[in-house]
Amino acid sequence: MRIANLLVAACTASTALAWGSLGHRTVAYLASLYLTPEATRWTNRLLNGQDISEAALFPDKIAHIPIFAYTRAWHYIDAADDPPRLCAINITRDCLPHTGCVVSAIANHTARVLDPSLPRFLQAQSLRFVLHFIGDIHQPLHTEKEDRGGNGIEVVFDGRRTNLHSVWDSLMPNKYRKRDEWWPGPPGDPRREREEEASFLWAKELFDSDGEAGDVSRECVSDAAECALEWAQEANGYVCSYVLRDDVEGVQAGDLGGEYYVGAVEILDQQVRNGGRRLAAWLNLMADATGDEASDGMLIVQDELK
Ligand SMILES: *[C@@H]1O[C@H](CO)[C@@H](O)[C@H](O)[C@H]1NC(C)=O
Ligand SMILES: *[C@@H]1O[C@H](CO)[C@@H](O)[C@H](O)[C@H]1NC(C)=O
């Protein structure tokens, strides 16, 4: 992973493609609160002790590097529907086999994490993709084609000119969680620590307010592509029911930092909660699938002997 770390250091200032780092970190931390002890051990070992929220940011950091350009389409699925009249994903139409999309990427990287023929660093890389994409698929505008997921829709948020995609990725989550630092700085920077703290606090609030008492066993885990499509359909539904409810003219009619923001907070909470719970169910299952506790213990010993 040394090469990857260098790449990460070179690219931390890039613009976001996805839920901002606050949203991704919170999904990852929330998932970590629901993990079984086995899944916690398995995840930590595969990530080599890296903070799970930091690991979840990896795909955004490499997406801007030309040799990783092929990963960019994996962050979203461009539903060519017609909001606000009709929201729907058609997987044949919207997920092109030669580029892939967030649905196929979740399936692909889940299979790769579990593929014992792959070298460990590639399994770990695929785990980082899974941590990230299960976040992205819950951002409504990552499931919508219109104006490139809202990137092309110019809007105003708290007096600032921006685009609708950024409003959902970062500006609203940051306002909600009282964050005004848009870049958390290099590793070791106190701003980064504050971002981790803010994410963990959000995750803890969601966890503590979960009526299901930490039980994620009813989340979809049957088939990766099927579950991912179900989550994408659900996120896409919010494009019609809220994000573009009054069409493009609606979001361009006034400052989105007021009433629009207030109404969106509930969706942010719900979608980050869904992402965290589902990611946890996923990791719990993957940890189970990779073997029993006995072999688990042996692996740890072997690692320590190296
Ligand atoms: C989905 O898209 C494909 C390819 O464009 C099309 O042939 C098919 O009829 C669509 N399915 C539905 C249910 O609209
Ligand atoms: C699966 O992921 C690997 C590694 O990133 C990539 O090379 C491959 O093209 C992916 N396959 C699909 C079907 O997305």
From TrEMBL:
UniProt keywords, alphabetically: Disulfide bond, Endonuclease, Glycoprotein, Hydrolase, Metal-binding, Nuclease, Signal
GO molecular function, one term: metal ion binding
Database matches in Gene3D superfamilies: P1 Nuclease (1.10.575.10)
Keyword Kinase applies: no
Domain of life according to the entry: Eukaryota
Biological process terms in GO annotation: DNA catabolic process
Keyword Endoplasmic reticulum included in the entry's annotation: no
Any matching Pfam family: S1-P1_nuclease
InterPro entries assigned to the protein according to its UniProt record, in alphabetical order: PLipase_C/P1_nuclease_dom_sf, S1/P1nuclease
Signal peptide extent: 1-18
Entry similarity comment: Belongs to the nuclease type I family.
Protein name: Nuclease S1
Source organism: Cyphellophora attinorum
